[in-house]
Design brief:
The protein is of the alpha+beta class. The protein contains four helices and eleven strands.
Amino acid sequence: MKVQTGYLYHIKDDFFDKINDKGLMINHENGRARPTYFTIKDKDILWFIPLSSKVSKYQPIVEQKIRKYGSCKSIMIREIAEHKSVILLQNAFPTLEKYIDHPHTKNGVPVKVPDNLKNEILYNFNSLLALKKQGTNLFFTNIDEIKNQMLEELKISNK
């Protein structure tokens, strides 16, 4: 499978079985593969950013952050594949291609986020990473620990 930045994917349960991080969102809800993840390919590491359909839950949080800080880069509400979606950058985590279950499709075609939205997500994600480097961590998961685990898995599998 060719994994590309800007497409949506679902992740295998194996990842959640392996990684014990309370900041990770659950992988299944009501028997459906959830959530869908916006994916960023960064060499051998993939960054997964969960999407949610719970706009009414997150809209007040976004509005509160905008009132308090002037903007909100950790949660975005945008239209993806003709549905309003919440893009939860604060819940992003690194993983490996082997943990991808399948691409998210619509009418049998993998869903690609429009380039302008993809670029906005990448900008906000990189802003969150830069803030983390400066000591302000807005991620709910321990991205450093998970990334180290993924890199260690790569080392072992490449031996």
